[in-house]
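This is your field. Have a critical look at both lines of this record:
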Amino acid sequence: LVARALSRPDGTPENLRFIQSLPGKTWQDEAGLFTRERISHIVAKNSGGTASTAKLAAARELGLPVLMLARPDAPEP
């Protein structure tokens, strides 16, 4: 299991391969990471921005399944 984030959350398992970094800028960067790490599936949150564009393009190019987690509903005022 491989995870990438800006910081490692408390309580993550020690056997988790953690990569502390920003997403790659191009789909080729992301595809290289996915290939090196032998990624078979992508699980990502829908952050509502464009930061995942390269990741999703790389997954599409490599034929990897993607599970996109929906954003929670905004709280009512």
Notes: The mean pLDDT is 91. The radius of gyration is 14 Å. The beta strands are 2-5, 17-20, 42-45, 66-69.
